[in-house]
Design goal:
Blueprint (H helix, E strand, L loop, with lengths): L1 E5 L4 H12 L3 E6 L7 H10 L12 E3 L6 E5 L5 H11 L3 E4 L8 H4 L1 H21 L4 E7 L23 H20 L3 E6 L2 E2 L8 H10 L3 E4 L6 E2 L2 E2 H12 L23 E6 L5 E2 H12 L4 E4 L15 H7 L7 H15 L4
Parallel strand pairs: 1-2, 1-5, 2-4, 5-6, 6-7, 7-12, 8-11, 9-14
Antiparallel strand pairs: 3-4, 10-13
């Protein structure tokens, strides 16, 4: 199988490309390397995959110095013409779309970035999948789609029509768009709702990274919902295992789907949604305590109310993942935080 991974310079894309390259898959990774956060981390990830920053010219495919079957192209998903040419030239079997404008809070400041990347870019991916007979599209959704839903644990069978941010709305839109293409053009699509992913090489705008940096620098941290926030923190290795399992098994359609009692997570069409979460919500205050323990330093806490666009709690129902793949995330936050902090100290050369 020849696989296109979009967002390869991102947190999840980098780890996925490493794992699939190690097992011998032929991969082309795509990324526009935008400056939403510190690009030195993105270049660090790409360097670990065998790419040199000076070689990364726009719309040029370069080969990895580390993996014989891994290549990279710098490209925007919104660049329909060159994206189409890439699909025409490379004859992909599968696509894993992880490229997106991330961040709930940033969507309040720069909504256009989410329309461009998450809606227009995703439309271009769908069109290419349609026109070039892609055997399976796996794409990143988010736990943020659950929005105002307070029924927990969050199930893919729940209604998700009340998002709280444009980011969440864009991910919900991706799911709807994917179903349409699965229905009309028989393209197998699988959406993965990720729950608060963390671990080595994580994003600098995420809580674990922000807290670790601030505590080490003796700076205050912003603790929203007065530390009572609960998140289903999910370690990166568990997320990658879930993506690999799903990507290897395209949906074929549910012959028993009932249009009188429709299950949102499946369809007559070859379409499926999964949650990938640890199924063990952790209170933010405990998460911070675990970081403090690992660093051997106390945090200076600035206690704040819940922010606009945020939800007080997330909790994944992964019963479908268990039923279909006999898999569920298991890594504890204690283990995951230790691995992250070990990486952080190494990357920033902190002794």
């Amino acid at each position: 199988m020849k696989i296109l991974i979009t967002g390869i310079a991102g947190f999840i894309g980098y780890h996925l490309a490493s794992v699939l390259s190690e097992r011998g898959d032929e991969i082309i990774g795509l990324d526009n390397i935008n400056d939403y956060y510190d690009v030195s981390i993105k270049f660090g990830r790409l360097n670990n995959l065998g790419f040199t920053e000076s070689d990364l010219a726009y719309n040029c495919i370069i080969r990895s110095h580390k993996y014989s079957k891994l290549s990279f192209i710098k490209l925007n998903l919104e660049d329909k013409k060159n994206l189409d040419q890439l699909f025409l030239k490379e004859s992909f079997d599968k696509v894993i779309n992880l490229a997106a404008q991330a961040g709930v809070r940033y969507s309040l400041e720069n909504p256009q970035a989410y329309i461009d990347s998450n809606i227009i870019g995703f439309t271009n991916i769908l069109e290419c999948c349609r026109n070039y007979s892609i055997k399976h599209l796996t794409y990143a959704s988010s736990s943020s789609v659950y929005g105002l839903n307070e029924k927990q644990p969050f199930s893919t069978k729940d209604n998700v029509d009340h998002p709280l941010s444009l980011y969440a709305a864009s991910k919900k839109s991706n799911e709807l768009m994917a179903h349409t293409y699965s229905h009309l053009f028989n393209i197998p699509t699988t959406g993965l709702r990720f729950f608060t992913v963390y671990g080595p090489w994580g994003r600098p705008d995420m809580a674990l990274f922000l807290f670790t940096k601030a505590i080490l620098n003796n700076e205050p941290i912003s603790v929203y919902n007065f530390g009572k926030m609960q998140r289903d923190f999910t370690y990166i290795a568990d997320i990658i295992e879930g993506i690999v399992q799903v990507n290897d098994h395209p949906p074929s359609g549910n012959k028993n789907w009932d249009p009188q009692n429709p299950d949102p997570s499946t369809s007559f069409a070859p379409y499926k949604l999964y949650n990938i979460g640890n199924s063990k919500p952790v209170e933010l205050s405990y998460f911070i305590e675990t970081i403090e323990k690992e660093l051997g330093k106390r945090a200076i806490k600035n206690l704040l109310p819940l922010q606009a666009g945020d939800v007080p709690s997330t909790f994944a129902d992964v019963s479908d993942l268990m039923a279909d793949f006999n898999f569920k995330p298991e890594t504890s936050v204690e283990t995951g935080i230790k691995h992250f902090i070990d990486w952080y100290k190494s990357f920033y050369q902190i002794t």
